[in-house]
Design brief:
This protein is an all-alpha fold. The chain is built from 3 helices and no strands.
Length: 95
């Protein structure tokens, strides 16, 4: 398995864990684990995206503009999601 494939696998696995975490936010049975699961998913997906992007840049891979745009849109959405999680967790702490 090449480093590029490993980066893709990490990113995809992180997206899966992120999806499970978001689903858990809506579930009452494991709702207490939703935040940590989502944070782990965000971290895995972010690392995989970053690693793949870095490896492709080192290899001289030319990406279309729309791929680069989607890469940065994804980063913005991940930051927004983390901000929402932070606000959500603070709201849960209020009496």
């Amino acid at each position: 398995m090449t480093r590029l494939k490993l980066a893709e696998l990490t990113s995809t696995s992180g997206a899966l864990v992120l999806g499970v975490g978001l689903g858990a936010l809506l579930a009452t049975s494991i709702g207490t684990l939703a935040g940590p699961i989502t944070v782990v998913g965000v971290a895995m997906h972010a690392f995989g995206m970053w690693d793949k992007h870095r490896l492709e840049a080192q290899g001289g891979v030319q990406r279309p503009t729309w791929i680069v745009a989607l890469y940065w849109v994804c980063w913005l959405l991940l930051v927004a999601l983390l901000a929402l999680l932070l606000l959500w967790s603070r709201r849960q702490e209020l009496p």
